[in-house]
Amino acid sequence: MKLNNQVAILICGHGSRNKLAITEFQELTNFIQKRYPNFLVEYGFLEFAKPSIVDALDKLKDLSIKKVIAIPAMLFAAGHVKNDIPSLLMNYSSKTGIEIIYGRELGINNLMISAACERVKDVFKQNNNLKPEESLLVVVGRGSSDPDANSNVSKITRMIVEGIGLGWGETVFSGVTFTRIKRQSDLVAINNPNISFIHAKYLSSQSYVVDTFVERIEEILNNEGNNFMNCSTCKYRSNLFGFEKEVGMVQESHHDHVEGLGISCDLCDPECNGACEIQNQIPTHNQEKSDIGGGDYLEHEHVEAHQHEHNHHHHHHSIYPNSKHPLGPVTLRLPNKD
């Protein structure tokens, strides 16, 4: 099949310091490329990894690509999907003249719910003594200042619980932090030896996830008119209670200061094991000592970068309405002015 030398597909990722996450993203892109052998498929990251989205766009421009189909590789539409990525793409398009068509986030659909259910079902296949009706599913979301995105995590939890027939389901958030989910659950397991804690695999390049990317790309290629995000509960479009001040905010990227830095951690083996916390014993900012394991600690370079993100966040975003809530979210609190 002849390669289309006019149109290309760009998968826009968030980026991570973790090398395993970058490898998984590359594998995902390879699967998408196999589904579209007549299109060039590239990938780029918003922050903390290379190539950046701009790097990827520059590569396509050098190949004389005239039109780019850009798909955000993110589960739900929060600030990155609604502001940061489209702002970056629009600026690039206006400067270079390349047409960039922006697709939808992965979102909640049957394919993504099926992908998550398959990961949970794999756990039961590998542990025959487990019974769904006696098991608690804990879904850990990254967390966002966008209530619409956060509520979607809770919804997908419930869909999995009822689809598989689990006993219970809970939704929690790691927040915009350096929390190590597996490490923290292992610490909890030590204090609860009568409960089995089993980690399901990441969604990664599960076949239904790849199918969802194909669905998003086809929406654009076939001009189906379905390439729309949910606006009914979007805090930028709808007068949501508590978020009224954010209606109509100007779209602008808040990640130019970390774009393409390519910062990676050499202590992970290959997945994050919390080694930097143990090695340096430096407490994270705005966090009190944890009740489990003696507190959260980060490598010094990581602390400085995170502090920069935290302060930068408040320079550009409106104040999260519940930032002073005693139960969190810690990472959205304003720095102390005392």
Tally of alpha and pi helices:
9
> What oligomerization state is this entry in?
single chain
Give the low-confidence spans: 281-315
Tell me about the biggest sheet?
Answer: 4 strands, parallel
Q: Helical amount among residues, as a percent range?
A: 25-40%
Task: Tell me, briefly, the overall form.
Answer: globular
Helix and strand sequence? EHEHEHEHEHEHHHH
Using only C-alpha atoms, the radius of gyration works out to 21 Å
Task: Describe the structure concisely.
With 338 residues, this protein is of the alpha/beta class. The chain contains nine helices and six strands. Helix 4 packs across helix 5.
Q: Can you offer a commentary on this structure?
A:
The chain is built from nine helices and six strands; from the N terminus they run βαβαβαβαβαβαααα. The radius of gyration is 21 Å and the shape is globular. It is α/β, with parallel strands linked by helices. Helix 2 (53-62) runs parallel beside helix 3, helix 4 (110-126) crosses helix 5 and helix 4 (110-126) runs antiparallel to helix 7 (207-221). The longest helix has 18 residues, at 79-96. The N and C termini lie far apart (65 Å). The model is unreliable at 281-315 (pLDDT under 50). Helices cover 38% and strands 10% of the residues. The strands form two sheets. Strands 2-1-3-4 form a four-stranded parallel β-sheet, with helices on both faces. Strands 5-6 form a two-stranded parallel sheet.
